[in-house]
Design goal:
Strand content: 15-25%
Largest sheet: 7 strands, mixed
Shape: globular
Number of strands: 21
Distance between the termini: 57 Å
Length: about 500
């Protein structure tokens, strides 16, 4: 028997859990928040010092709740790329640039001119969210900060350093966000040199450890901060949503993990390299050896619905819940409206950070519920668009596991299932990233022989939700209109984005 302490650093805070490998369940969870700040349009930042505080608060709380004074291993998942810039001793030199920050759009576009063979792993260019374009932006726009930086890293690396005192990178993050050659298991310094950031390689963590690998025992001081009487093994984790694949047991090709939260991430694994243009990847060995990971997703999702309900409609949590219930009861009320869900750009299949949100077809007769329903349907259409283009690329998806905040929003959940047009497994465990990190840690300390075996044994329970045939037909008819509107409005949305970023 082993007990695992898991951490999931999301956009709004960290959640901690204690997992029992014999009982195959999470014994308890606790949360601690931290703030996201938006100093300019398209910018989003967090404080690494607040991560440290939240880590200790949530960790102590869950250990006290579950009565644990010892655990066997610890593993963490975080958002990515959320980029921290600091000194070698971990002192932050600036706020961390959050994953959704799109200030590096120009730099991301510049990566498309590279012809290095390793660029095929990311589909030929980097996303604005990733560490490399953000590093380009920092060196170009904040050269003084860049010159002082001794470490440029992911939030995951920062947290693992806090726990162990060692700078270590995750093979998952390196493969998916750093232009690391995970097939050859090596950095590609010529890519950084071509992008004008040859000195980035000296600032990155040099030791790259695969998911489920051992980093080091926890620092004694950190164990004391958490109230632990032992120094557990710290195992390597990765990107929050991607680690959820282990909790969902969608490791094998044909399965898709769909996590709907602040953003949406859809993840599949392939048995071999394939053309998945429009998406991120395929990344060899990013999660499990011998598989190619493909990342799809939508940048704004639950964040858009919360913005609409809170900022635009002025609703509190109870008011938002009542609005969801009203829309769920009459899902067809958005007929005649069309929204585009690109509030912070598009991840896939357009890979376009300069797209922006839109709402069309409004009249004076429309209500808040109608507008909210249109927003919900735009998210569902965006998800259907992802699966439609995947299918066109020859990627078959026959099993979908859905989890995250979407599960708690009945209108959004059912609309998405209707738009996908196939039965979906809905996870009863609301945080697959916590389960996934427990799976990775259990494999690291030898409770299971490997990640696939551990995932199979510890998969979160789920129930099936089926599409409504009439609504599925409506989404099928509306998807071409969504696609056409995107193409027709692209020049206008790009011009508006340029004005915003220039302001």
């Amino acid at each position: 028997m082993a007990h695992i302490l898991s951490f999931d650093f999301g956009t709004g805070g960290v959640r901690a859990g204690v997992y029992d490998t014999d009982r195959r369940q999470m014994l308890g969870q606790a949360d601690a928040p931290y703030a996201t700040r938006y100093p300019r349009a398209g910018w989003a930042e967090q404080s690494p010092d607040e991560w440290r505080t939240a880590l200790r608060l949530a960790g102590r709380a869950v250990l006290e709740k579950t009565g644990r004074r010892t655990v066997d291993a610890v593993c963490t998942a975080t958002t990515a790329s959320t980029v921290a810039v600091c000194l070698r001793d971990g002192t932050p030199l600036s706020p961390a640039i959050l994953w959704m920050d799109c200030r590096a759009e120009t730099e991301a576009r510049e990566t498309a001119r590279l012809t290095h063979p390793a660029m095929r792993f990311c589909g030929g260019s980097d996303a604005v969210e990733w560490l490399v374009p953000k590093s380009m932006w920092l060196k170009r726009h904040q050269p003084e900060l860049w010159s002082k930086a001794e470490v440029v890293c992911e939030a995951l690396d920062y947290v693992n350093f806090d726990m162990t005192g060692e700078w270590v990178g995750s093979r998952m993050n390196a493969a998916c966000k750093w232009n690391y050659d995970s097939e050859g298991h090596s950095f590609v310094p010529e890519i950084y040199e071509s992008l004008g950031i040859a000195d980035l390689i000296d600032r990155l963590p040099q030791r790259i450890v695969p998911v489920g690998g051992v980093i080091a025992p926890m620092r004694a001081a950190m164990a004391a901060d958490l109230g632990l009487e032992n120094r557990p093994i710290v195992a390597q984790g990765g990107i929050d949503a991607h680690i959820g694949i282990l909790g969902a047991d969608t490791v094998e090709p044909g399965g898709m993990l769909f996590i709907g939260g602040t953003s949406i991430v859809q993840l599949v694994q392939l048995a071999e390299e394939a053309d998945v243009s429009g998406f991120w990847g395929p990344y060899p060995n990013a999660l499990t050896d011998g598989h190619w990971l493909v990342e799809c997703g939508q940048v704004a999702a639950g964040s858009m619905l919360n913005w609409l309900a809170g900022e635009m409609f002025g609703l509190d949590q109870a008011g938002h819940a009542a609005l969801i219930e009203k829309v769920a009861a009459s899902p067809g009320r958005s007929e005649g409206l069309l929204a585009l869900d690109y509030m912070m750009g598009n991840r896939t299949p357009y890979r376009d950070a300069a797209l922006r949100g839109a709402l069309m077809g409004l009249t004076l007769g429309h209500t808040r519920a109608d507008i909210y329903a249109a927003a919900v349907d735009s998210l569902a259409l965006g998800s259907a668009n992802v699966l439609s283009v995947l299918k066109a690329r020859g990627v078959a998806v026959d099993r979908v596991m859905m989890a995250g905040g979407i599960v708690k929003n009945a209108a959004w959940l059912q609309a998405t299932v209707d738009a996908l047009g196939l039965p979906v497994q809905v996870a009863r465990e609301d945080n697959l990233s916590l389960v996934g990190t427990a799976v990775a840690a259990a494999a690291a300390i030898g409770v299971f022989s490997d990640l696939k075996t551990a995932a199979r044994a510890c998969a979160a329970p789920a129930s099936e939700l089926t599409p409504d045939p009439a609504r599925a037909e409506w989404f099928s008819r509306t998807l071409p209109l969504y696609q056409e509107a995107t193409e027709q409005l692209r020049p206008v949305l790009h011009q508006l984005a340029r004005r915003q970023m220039g302001g």
